[in-house]
Design a protein that fits this description.
The complex is a heterodimer of chains A (495) and B (95). With 495 residues, chain A is of the alpha/beta class. Chain A contains 15 helices and eleven strands. Chain A is globular. Chain B has 95 residues and is mainly alpha-helical. Helices cover 32% and strands 4% of the residues of chain B. In chain B, a hairpin with a 2-residue loop joins strand 1 and strand 2. In chain B, helix 1 crosses helix 2. Classes of the chains: A alpha/beta (495), B mainly alpha (95). At the A-B interface, helix 9, helix 10, helix 11, helix 12 and helix 13 of A face helix 1 and helix 2 of B.
Amino acid sequence: MSELSKLTIAEARDAMRAGDVTSVEITEACVSAIEGADALGAFVHKTPEIALEQAKAADARIKSGDAPAMCGIPLGIKDLFCTKGVASQAASNILEGFKPEYESTITQNLWDAGAVMLGKLNMDEFAMGSSNETSAYGNAVNPWKRAGDDAELTPGGSSGGSASAVAGDLCLAATGTDTGGSIRQPAAFTGITGLKPTYGRCSRWGVVAFASSLDQAGPMTKTVRDAAIMLQSMAGHDAKDSTSADLPLPDFEAALTGDIRGKKIGIPKEYRMDGMPEEIEKLWQEGTEMLRSAGAEIVDISLPHTKYALPAYYVIAPAEASSNLARYDGVRYGHRAKLAEGDGIEQMYQKTRAEGFGHEVKRRVMIGTYVLSAGFYDAYYNRARRVRALIKKDFDDVFAAGVDSILTPATPSAAFGLGEMADADPVQMYLNDVFTVTVNLAGLPGIAVPTGVNAHGLPLGLQLIGRPWQEDELLNAAYALESAAGFVSKPAKWW
Amino acid sequence: MSIDIDTARRVAHLARIAVDENDLPALAGELSQILTFMEQLNEVDVDGVEPMTSVTPMRLKRREDVVTDGNMQDKILANAPDAREGFFAVPKVVE
């Protein structure tokens, strides 16, 4: 039975359509895999009753012969997505007990396509973090361990629960969100595929906001094909999100021909950082050769403002977060602090937010408050937005010169140990996003694909960056890379 | 740029987050560290560069100025920590 949770979306779809297996069977396999995997800390709210109900309906729909590709596919949903009647608390104590009266557009799209919800997944609080260690639920744990070493590793963050659940075969795929790398970094740390679509491709409505000009949801899957299939269901115009793009959706799966002959792949010299580990450098070289062998033309490119992406991000993202998180005031939903005799509304706000927010969230809200405050707005916030314009122009120039996609490492290292960064200063943790954050600032689509393992047997991933609205082209390049890399390793089950 | 304790106290107040007096020095240190990291942005020549306002060159859609939903008081209040008689209840605001 448990083998069924290891299926890819494409395999499950084909088997269900052929009548070889039912959604109920696959769903039950996932439910029992989840029951036995509490040590991974991935699923934080389990919804087996909803799942079985949806699976039965999906089976009936498949039988009728009119079922979309995602019909009957059991998924995990990041806790950042509002799901009607099911706890949705962005891994924060301030949203404790919050059960939305509405459904996010993306999850609604998935349920409309017949997908099955297994439950909600762990993450960094309000998606702020790169190791899933800021969660109110406690850590999510990477199913992978270093060879001969029992230390628990981070699955990355912020979509750490999603990454852990997919890599550990607790579900067929999961939703993630990516503000600075939160889909791609955990995907790379756990040997799975993670796609951040173009900003505006997927509706943000009903997804708890972190930094609205950077946030974008996407699929986290076992293969590139699955990412294409799942994106098809998630994406599309939504009148409820004014930044959602009113553009036709290409057929993403049909784009996967694996033929990238004559495509121009750019290798940006600024991503060759000082002190980059040799295993990352080697992985990048190998990936470059794979694409060259597949017939792509490899060109050296320059993205001169890369170095400034991280500091610009850490002005803009906290600034937007400080505005977005102003809504958590203990009035309309979630936690309210116990007040002392005589406390007024001001004390209620201050105590509620002090108790409800974790350390990293408070730090970022305060940084954001500072850079937006009178006297500093121009020096920090407006300057960062100008630098952001230059970062975007770097990409525009490269694409205008005919480059189709860009190949970079996904992360500066393999997964690190939980607690290993506890004494590091916050900036050290922020460096995890160094290769991914430029993509959010420029609003581009990016995908992390596992292409190798390091000396300790841990997965490593490469990132491909595409032109805006050309996820189909990007997925095809990723498919070619995936086929050439032939990454098939799986973590040994210890949980 | 270094943040002193008074500035840390002011920022915490603006953010409406209660911070214990004893924790202010550590907070000031952390904020200073992050701001120092941001100082790198001063190296960039941004003369004549417009601040980026939208990721993609799109015109925000305008919607009809009409009522599209309503009559869901119970749903709006369902998650409130303290709702009474159809209202959100808060501590006394005006003396």
